[in-house]
Amino acid sequence: MNAVEATFDITAEDVRATPEHDSARLARRWVRVSLLVLMGLVAALVATAGFAVRNIYTLGDVRYVKEAAPIFASGQDALVEMLNEETAVRAYVITADSTALKPYRQGLRYERLELAELARNPTGDPQLPAHVATAKTQVDALDRYFASEIALVRRGSKGQREAAAGVLAEKTQFDRFRRSAQVLESDAVRIFTRARNEQHHTYVVTLIVLLCGGLVALAIALVLLFRIPSRLYRLYRHEEEARRAAENGAEAVRALTHVGDAVALIDSDGVIRSWNPAAERLFGLPADSGLGRLASSVAPQLTEVREHAASGDSATPVMLAGQRRWLAVSESPFPDGSVVVIRDVTDDRELERMRSEFVATAAHELRTPLAAVYGAIRTMRGVTLELDQREQFLALIETESERLRTITDQLLITAQLDSAAPVDVYIEPVDLGELIASLASSALVRWPGGLDLDVIQPPSPVFADTDAPRLHQVVSNLLENAIKYSPRGGQIQLRVAKRGGYGAIDVADQGLGIPAEEQDRIFEKFYRLDPDMARGVGGSGLGLHIARELIRRMNGTITVSSQAGSGSTFTILLPLAPTPSAG
Amino acid sequence: MTCAIVRAAGPPGTATRLRDIDGSSAGSRALRILVVEDDPGMRLLCSVNLELAGFSVALASTGLEGLERTRHEHFDLVLLDVMLPDLGGLDVAERLRSAPGTAQLPIVFFSARASRADIEQGRLAGAIDYIVKPFDPLTLADRLLDDFEEHRRSGHDGVRRMRFGPSRS
């Protein structure tokens, strides 16, 4: 038992130390061996019991019933038959009646059968044959005597008297036979005793063997009973863990397949153990082409990015498929390597660049009117000005403050357009001609020299479904742009017309114009004709973006047609409203 | 690169100071300044303050107009906006520097663009100073006069070293 325990007792340390599958294999083998031992024990017990039952049966039946009993019976029967013979012969001697000899003849025959039976000696007793031989000699002598007596009686009455006188001689012979028969009888008793002793011995041995076997089986069964459940539990736990690990693994692989970031498992030798479809896409490699190979040879860009990341760079520019992409990488170590997550942050950086550019632009845009306001106030406080100069400075402060308000409004509207909250638009029938007329009259107050404003009204009023203040804001912005981009003067046209089912507002200038390739982009947020702002007029890059977004919310469209160098025409189309009958 | 910061506003009295310096160094001739600026408000601010300081001021609202004026007239200094609608201030500066008649004409940028990169671009375009908007118009004349004097005294590179710091090339 100690040896068994020593071999199969796996300590908790062993389980932790050996890899999972080894431990599970050991536990499985232990359970199998235990079951085999149990089966062996049960088989041994059954065999022992079978052997014992067979032995007891054989001894009891064969030796006792079939061997010893016949010897005993035959010994007694031989004596009885002899008595029958003698009695019959005596009766014949007295009566000379031949019918009295019938038992004699029968006894004579049976006597021989009994002696033959005894001579067979089925038990193999060593003394029995000699005793049987002695008895047979005496039987033969007695039979010879009986035959002579019968012969005397047949000779007549003289012979009868002679025979009667010889009876005494017969008695000694008979007593001798009787003793032989008794010897045979004691032989039978001895055989009985021996058989009984053997039987008893077998019984005792069998009992001891069964008892010992049972005890051993019980002991082993007890040990197994205590051991198997824990082994089975450990085995179950191992298998459960393996199953869960496999499930987790499958889940993880499925999750990784859908992760947008590229994920790669790279071991400490730099070999790619696994990577997800996003990584394949990022590095433009066919599936599985990188597995088991060195990361540095499959995707040298990755190595470059990892080196830069290790030295503290948050993102590194690399060439991927002929394009410059910014990659950010984060690594989580695992025992044999790293999980590397690679993210393409090019768009993020572009957005960030646009945002910071926007902040710089917005700051610049705010700074310009602020400079005028601040400068005007400093001047007015610092020096004595003529009255008309004072008026000029006050007007300057007023317009520049308005410009500041416009820019801050634009910034707010842009933030609002970007957010989820809807921008309120109140749609109502608006007379477009009236709108441009009021717009023109307020614009003319500060109209720059060298520019003409031409307002073209429709023959009959055009009503459109729109938001008057918002539309005013948009057209005013277009007009400001037209002025800003007409540095050499010329004419600006403001026109309202009915075009198809729409009310149209055109703002046309003869200024710098917009290159064809830029015309689609000018409505984008932050887009500027001169991204470096090295020349051209200032602007937040928001005006046209706001215009497009507001017009879209009024169910209209805004488009531009332009030729670089010869001016631009912006056209707003708005759905017509039913003309009011009273209007 | 931190030199191009607007100096703190001094007490009003630029005209008096100008006369002192004028008397000692520049003679009786008033400085003739060309202001190239597209924003009318800014033009007004510059012209009023510089004229009050005794300068003779010419105004141009576009880069091309400014270039045109330098071809026919003499100026002691050009105050140049960086952002102009037709030809940018940097381009104007380049053309002035490359034309034989105006190669030595001191150029001072003034702009609301105030990043280090912007100021460095101004230096590379050959300007002797870079004034960031908003600025105090009361000290503008002093600043331009200092620039002009320094330019005359220690040359183009000397004044640039003073305003922009040691060159990084």
Per-chain topology:
The complex is a heterodimer of chains A (583) and B (169).
Chain A: H1 2-8, H2 12-17, H3 20-95, H4 102-120, H5 128-154, H6 157-165, H7 167-258, E1 262-267, E2 272-275, H8 277-283, H9 295-298, H10 300-310, E3 316-320, E4 323-334, E5 337-344, H11 346-382, H12 387-418, E6 428-431, H13 432-444, E7 451-456, E8 463-466, H14 468-484, E9 490-499, E10 502-508, H15 543-553, E11 557-562, E12 568-575
Helix pairs in contact in A: 3-4, 3-5, 3-7, 4-5, 5-6, 5-7, 11-12, 12-15, 13-14, 14-15
Chain B: H1 14-26, E1 32-36, H2 40-52, E2 56-60, H3 63-72, E3 77-81, H4 89-98, E4 107-111, H5 116-124, E5 129-132, H6 137-164
Parallel strand pairs in B: 1-2, 1-3, 3-4, 4-5
Helix pairs in contact in B: 1-6, 2-6, 3-4
Please provide a written account of the structure.
- The complex is a heterodimer of chains A (583) and B (169).
- Chain A folds into four domains: 2-236, Four Helix Bundle (Hemerythrin (Met), subunit A), CATH 1.20.120; 260-344, Beta-Lactamase, CATH 3.30.450; 349-418, Helix Hairpins (Orthogonal Bundle), CATH 1.10.287.130; 428-575, Heat Shock Protein 90, CATH 3.30.565.
- Chain A is built from 15 helices and twelve strands.
- Chain A has helices at residues 2-8, 12-17, 20-95, 102-120, 128-154, 157-165, 167-258, 277-283, 295-298, 300-310, 346-382, 387-418, 432-444, 468-484, 543-553; strands at residues 262-267, 272-275, 316-320, 323-334, 337-344, 428-431, 451-456, 463-466, 490-499, 502-508, 557-562, 568-575.
- In chain A, the strands form three sheets. In chain A, strands 2-1-5-4-3 form a five-stranded antiparallel sheet, sandwiched between helices. A five-stranded mixed sheet of chain A has the order 7-9-10-12-11. A two-stranded antiparallel ribbon of chain A has the order 6-8.
- The longest helix of chain A has 92 residues, at 167-258.
- The two termini of chain A are 114 Å apart.
- Chain B has 169 residues and is an alpha/beta fold.
- Chain B has a single domain (16-160), classed as Rossmann fold, CATH 3.40.50.2300.
- A five-stranded parallel sheet of chain B has the order 2-1-3-4-5, with helices on both faces.
- In chain B, helix 2 (40-52) links the parallel strand 1 and strand 2 (56-60).
- In chain B, helix 1 crosses helix 6 (137-164), helix 2 (40-52) packs across helix 6 (137-164) and helix 3 (63-72) packs parallel to helix 4 (89-98).
- The longest helix of chain B is centred in the last third of the chain and has 28 residues, at 137-164.
- The radius of gyration of chain B is 15 Å and the shape is globular.
